[in-house]
């Protein structure tokens, strides 16, 4: 039976983990001297690993982020002199890098013994589900598990013209955009992003706007027709997130044109555009394929 953990802030510093049992693996938090070897892991799949690639480019090294997220390395043998074989971002979320069927379960056990809580585990399906196969022995029951989420990419121009009314949102449009962002979050995750207060979520959306990572189309009355974010950006790939169409405009064939506009904006920043989508969302999958996205892999998500 899973050990039920109290719901505490998942962004608190990682607790000191009890010693791992004897075995071929060792673990430690990565630092500046590990940057080059971590890049080697990340670059094996720059699209799937865009989250950690963006961190490396922003911070300039494998050290912790300004918000406290850190990267835990898994080594074959001694953690000082051994080979770095896999890694996992540990912040509000867990994001695996380079994990395999062999390495993911012991990594999950190591994370579980630390006694920390997380909002989600997401990333390449094998790594996520492998972590969960053992991390679940230590964690609270998840809110949802989504094992099959096609990872789609496009590295050419879209197959159809972009919608002309899609544009980057402006800071003065924050209040108009927030209800659409909150609605998308609730539809996708199942609860409000305002739980515990609205200020954190408001600052996140404002940050996306200020960095020109927020795109939207507005109706004549100022309501949002469509919106999406360039959620994670590296020099090699952009991962699109938060795609949402106003329910009053769904079923009218508009989403593909808007997504073509998102592709054009994203490809001004990096050559490859990616996103992942729930496998049961047939309407979204059909729209993305009309634009020119093709499946290159699979993600999974565990939500707490």
Structure notes:
It is built from eight helices and twelve strands. It has 304 residues and is an alpha+beta fold. It has two domains: 25-141, Aminopeptidase, CATH 3.40.630; 167-303, Aminopeptidase (3-Layer(aba) Sandwich). Strand 2 and strand 3 (83-90) form a beta hairpin. Helix 7 (255-267) packs across helix 8. The radius of gyration is 20 Å and the shape is globular. Mean pLDDT is 92; it is low at 1-16.
Architecture of the largest domain, according to CATH? 3-Layer(aba) Sandwich
Structural class: alpha+beta
Order of helices and strands: EHHEEEHEHEEHHEEEHEHE
Percent helix, as a range, is 25-40%
> What radius of gyration results from the CA coordinates?
20 Å
Number of strands: 12
Low-confidence runs: 1-16
Question: End-to-end span in angstroms?
Answer: 17 Å
Mean pLDDT, all residues: 92
Q: What's the CATH topology name of the largest domain?
A: Aminopeptidase
Sheet with the most strands: spatial strand order: 1-2-3-4-5-12-6-11-10-9-8-7
Gross morphology is: globular
**What fraction strand?**
25-35%
